[in-house]
Amino acid sequence: MNASTVTLPDKLSALSSQELMRLEKQIADQFMGGLPWGSICWGLGNLVVWLSLWPLTLSGILPLWIAFPIATLNVMLSYLPSHEAQHRIIAQEGDKLFWLNELVGNLSTIPMVLPYNVARLTHLEHHKHTNHPELDPDIATKARGPWHSILNSIRNRQPGSRAGAAYGATLQRLGTPAAQRAGLIALVFQLSYLAILFTLAWTGHALVAALIWWLPRHIAQTYIQFYLSWAPHHPGTETGRYRDTRSFRSAVGNIGSMGMQFHIIHHLYPRIPLMRTPAAYWALKPVLEARGCRLDGL
Amino acid sequence: MIRAILGPLMKNMPFLFGIGFLAPLIKEVLVLSHVSLGVPPLGIGLVIGGTWGAFATWKGRWI
Questions:
Q1: Is residue A36 within 8 Å of residue A273, measured between CB atoms?
Q2: A198: which chain B residues are within 8 Å (Cβ-Cβ)?
Q3: pLDDT tens, position by position, A229-238
Q4: Which of B21, B29, B52 should one mutate to test binding to chain A, selecting the residue with the greatest count of A CBs within 10 A?
């Protein structure tokens, strides 16, 4: 799907809110559906590449200085395929391919040590309460500017940080059996990750563990929080369908920011696959303008 | 029961991380860079990693 086939009326401002909504949905509908093979291959392929770095570096075939940037890119790339699965974009419950949705969702974030269930439950809360000071699990990424955002991300990862425990607090607030199970899985993930790091380190592979997993994960977390959380919601002060997320022009382009320039589309229509959000944005732009959305330079 | 075991474990995790990961990492870096301080590299790793981890546990921050 590259362009909208819906013809827009000359004066959108003359339309009522309901008519505008009908038009908006009509346009958005054209970009939903189908199997996002790109994201499926991305999620599974990325994990295979990252996993292959372990035997390649441990056996000395691949030098660590080559493996380190690849691993960093792998961890940076590991979130978004799972994000597609979190919104059931690959397949919905009851569909024949729902197993594929869950497979991509569960596997792709392993390098990030982020369990799918935790990611899904907290991310849906983020959608429900975007920019809410207490209920948005990602509100701690709010920052005054880009450098403050990076500093904030590092600060939030310190052991005593309350912001770092936001996902756990959200699961506790939800209190459902699924949230409790997710909390337990998160604990198992975290302890397994540390056990693997410690074992590798004490068996003479500390540098491999540091440069394939530990440091790439820190760099990736900073990048992901910057582009997937801070930038599209900045300044993070407003709530509401048309004001809690913005479009923006990224200095590193659309690929460099992993499609987040068009994140406003994702918040309006979370079932539109990531790779179709640019086309959906351009098709919906006149409607977004009529709605008073923040379209910062795009 | 789980809480009783995991509570103190998680509370002291920065210290354990200092000993469990940073110490051998520092040792490997010292060995690879041929730095000799007259003390076994692992000893230096344990002192730096342990102290840093203890600081992080105490202060709630690494830096």
A1: yes
A2: 16, 20-21
A3: 999 999 999 9
A4: B21
